[in-house]
Amino acid sequence: MTDHPADPLVDAAWLAAHLGAPDIRIIDATWFMPGDPRDARLLHVEGRIPGAIFFDIDEIADTSSPLPHMLPSPEKFASRMRKLGVGDGARIVVYDAHGVFSAARAWWMFRVMGKDDVVVLDGGLPAWVAAGGETEDGPPTKPSERHFTAQFRRDLVRDLPDMRAAVGGAAAILDARPRGRFEGRDPEPRAGLKSGCMPGAVNVPFGDLLTEDKRMKPRDALAALFAATPVDPRQPPIVTCGSGITAAVIALALARTGRWDAAVYDGSWAEWGALDDAPIVTGAQGE
Question: Which residue of 31, 206, 207, 276 lies most exposed, with the fewest beta carbons within 10 A?
């Protein structure tokens, strides 16, 4: 483990004070759920934090995979970061237009690629605007390329074989999906997926980690929430969701409490729920 910030989130006041620092790189990682007609890149052009660059979660991915926005290779990630002007010495601040949502995915991706000097803007663009922060619009200026070195951290990722070995055992599996989807009462937003959850998984809906204005809850409140779950705190957490987006919100919340070892199941339910032989339970069994 390399050095990381004491808190993985910063507020709008902190960002305003550091906005002009030459080593700060601001990343807009806005992403929308399937079926949402909004265009994240267009919204970036229409209004963004000054100097922000757009991080396309669906493109900075393994686009050869049939699964949505799977992690890219370290080589592809490094290439994309160089083109975005994100260098080895940068301090990275990630935000999204929701509050705390898809920014957590980009935060986790940077950490997987060996970059620990990365934080999330608490409350995202809405919090920035509410605090009186200025925005800019129009086509962004192409940044100067910088060298980025990716060092892949396998310990922060879980794949399908890992999950097959983990289910039904002592692993601490936390599922960020809304309760209706977790219990199999509500359909998945992606067609063709079964409903339910993995055996032994515990539901921690990502919305429960946030305040009404979509900021991350304070450390003590998060610690109490996780302590109330029936998972073994001695086990490294594995977090999952629909496609690896909101699982990272749980990882971010755990990091705020001091647990930096959460691993994201990258394929999440988009992979597990499509399998014919994967064990699935419904109802409150996963509680």
Answer: 276
List Cβ neighbours of 185 (8 Å cut-off, separation of 6 or more). 195, 282
Q: Supply the CATH classification number for the domain 9-152.
A: 3.40.250.10
Hey, is 92 helix, strand or coil? strand
Contact 60, 83 (CB under 8 A): no
Answer yes or no: are the C-beta atoms of 204 and 233 closer than 8 Å.
no
Note whether 71 and 105 are within 8 A (CB): no
Confirm if 65 and 159 have CB atoms less than 8 A apart.
no
> Catalytic: which of 241, 252, 255, 270?
241
Q: Within 13 Å of residue 3, how many CA atoms lie on the same side as its CB?
A: 3
Could you tell me the residue ranges of all domains in the chain?
9-152, 155-286
Q: 13-37 pLDDT, tens per residue? A: 999 999 999 999 999 999 999 999 9
**Interstrand relation of 202-203 and 172-175 (parallel, antiparallel or unpaired):** parallel
Place of tokens 């921690």: 204
Place of tokens 């995915």: 105
Q: Does position 286 have pLDDT exceeding 50, yes or no? A: no
Q: Is residue 241 flagged as an active site residue?
A: yes
Query: pLDDT by residue (tens digit) across 76-118?
Result: 999 999 999 999 999 999 999 999 999 999 999 999 999 999 9
Same fold, 9-152 and 155-286: yes
Fold of 155-286: Oxidized Rhodanese; domain 1 (3.40.250)
Q: What average pLDDT does the segment 208-222 reach?
A: 98
On whether the CB atoms of residues 152 and 41 are closer than 8 A, the answer is no
